[in-house]
Amino acid sequence: MLFKSLLLALAYITASNIAAPIFRREVPQEHSHENILILMRDAIALGSNPQNIGDPVFGLLGDAAAAGGLGDTSDVECLQQNTADLAFTNAKTSGNVTLMTAALVYRALERNTGSVGLQSNACTSTTATNPEIAAISQHQDPASTGAAATNKAIVLTLAQQIASIGGDPLQALQSGTFAPGTIGDPTAAGNTCDNIVNEGCINADNKLVDDATSAEIEAAVSGKASGATATVTAAAKVATNSVDAASCPAPVTVTVTGAATAAASSTPSPGQNLQTFSGNLGGSLPPAVTAGGRGFVVAGQTGDSFVNLSAALQRSCSVQNNACADAANSGAAQGVSVGDCNAQETQCNAA
Ligand SMILES: *[C@@H]1O[C@H](CO)[C@@H](O)[C@H](O)[C@H]1NC(C)=O
Ligand SMILES: *[C@@H]1O[C@H](CO)[C@@H](O)[C@H](O)[C@H]1NC(C)=O
Prior knowledge:
Blueprint lengths: L1 H23 L9 H12 L17 H4 L12 H16 L2 H11 L23 H4 L12 H18 L36 H4 L9 H29 L15 H6 L25 E4 L2 E4 L6 E2 L2 H22 L7 H13 L1
Antiparallel strand pairs: 1-2, 2-3
The chain binds 2-acetamido-2-deoxy-beta-D-glucopyranose (NAG) (2 copies).
The site of one 2-acetamido-2-deoxy-beta-D-glucopyranose (NAG) has 5 residues, from loops.
């Protein structure tokens, strides 16, 4: 079938040449969750906007287009976080839990990237002023490596944050994205929608894929309640050893390892992600580590919890390393070698 192969190769070359600009165009979906954008606008309008941040839709656009909403800020990769932070602050000042919840959900929405399967980078240049916002990262393209686990971890962390402000944790599911598109899809359209309807076209068209079951969300939220106490108590033990015995609550029964001592030196808020490593070589952050289960849980590692924070953090770094190696081997992460991934794991373990 030499002739057929030749024909296919020719067709491929022709298609690549002609379609090259289409391969690189953005997959538009910034209006898919218009319901959240509408609430975001309400939240922002409740107070001042000292950095003159633009409409919340900008934070969901790809890097080049997002620049239009930067206002006095400078990092397109942090615009979504900073917009969410502004909305949360204003909603919190007004005591509006609906709008605070919308700001948390908005922080977790997927951003546009240049092609199906391409992940958006983490915001690394600034930290949100609200720890609830700082704990959350955005959904990743469902066709990208490890996306199901990554996105589930994001939704469970989001649910914990929503619960911590007195909202309905099941609303975390609203941040879900579409079914995966096909890598190399010449239309680059994925399974998205982008028409503007008040309820969000992802809801109107029934295209939203739940990242977790309600049982998983309830488990994550109740794990937070008991586990967070253990973490805070561990932190208090550190304080007793070195600083201020007067501020120490009830006796401590949690075993604190060396790494736990270091990581717990500032008191984590409930549901806080205790994994602080922010490297994302290969396109994946290490999954969140939160208080829960027997002590600590690693997002995406269902049915497995850890007594020691150090062990949980190590597992999180290892999950990231696997995702990175998969991306390196599959060619999804161009210019990244498995050795680079291993070096990142060393940095992650040292963080
Ligand atoms: C919160 O904000 C929403 C949307 O703007 C509004 O409909 C609702 O009345 C507000 N709730 C309170 C308690 O102010
Ligand atoms: C957890 O910490 C305790 C006390 O330091 C240690 O004995 C135990 O081996 C650790 N467990 C794991 C799984 O690292």
